[in-house]
Amino acid sequence: MQVCKDFNDYELIDASLGMKYERWGKYYLLRPDPEVLWNNGDLKEKYKEKIDAIYYRSSTGGGHWENLKKIPERWTIKYKDLTFNIREMGFKHTGLFPEQASNWNYMYEKIKKSGRNIKVLNLFAYTGGATCACLKAGAEVVHVDSSRGMNDWAKENVISSKLDTTKVRYLVDDAVKFVKREIRRGHKYDAIIMDPPSYGRGSNGEVWSFSKNILELINLCSELLSDNPLFFQINSYTAGISPEVVKNILETEINTKHKGRVEADEVGIEIKCSNMILPCGIYGRWESD
User: Fold this and answer.
1) How large is the average pLDDT for residues 196-212?
2) Rounded CA gap, 251 and 258, in Å?
3) What is the mean pLDDT of the chain?
């Protein structure tokens, strides 16, 4: 499992009975997590004096935040030289997935060591964690997300991180339609990143299903790779999809056309109070030799 252990502004302190207790900068949040099936005590009682906000799920779907202490509408946390804007969002999120930091490390090091001008395509790019890491390494990035709000948030993160805003383009678009247009235009990329949802809708209501559409998308993206590609990275939080499935797709769709190495595994976060690991998703990666 790939685990990041150097995120000083974030800690997963404890996890028990479907909940996780975390520190985001100087604020402490209690949020649900379906992977936490073990019993390490009642976290709400255990940390009752040190919880700033709790997210409660609704029996009819969604949920809401309850702020127990004064908490700002938004605040920032740092990961190394990157600065991210954090907010309480619907459906328990904060605008950042800290377990992805190990992937940001990989992207940064791979681009930096290449010694080349690298052009990156980031699909389903969300609030731009990977975009920021690639920009920090000196790459040019095309950042694509179907949500204008997420693109605006990514812009905030790039500016907060003091990165070169002239080296990134933000596009509100459906990923599949965008890739098809890029193929027709003859555009090429040295690295492609994607973090597709399990289900979703594009900017014009296009329906996305990971299990139904991921093979087509990766096959299309293979046509966008340059003659000397650097890496191809997939992240997924889709239940029931194992790392081996993503690895097999990369072997058949990418490695048959561009010889290199393929790996896949889980990503996770260390639980500070117990030294256990909370699994948070999977990744698959093709990289050049």
Assistant:
1) 81
2) 10
3) 95
Burial of 45 (0-12, 13-18, 19+ CB in 10 A): exposed
**What is the predicted pLDDT for the residue at 206?**
74
pLDDT reported for residue 267: 97
Rounded to an integer, what is the distance from CA 73 to the centroid of its chain? 22
- Least Cα distance to 69 among 43, 90, 42, 88 occurs for 88
The position carrying tokens 């779907």 is 61
- Cα–Cα distance for residue pair 100/84, rounded to 1 Å: 13
Place of tokens 């790779």: 225
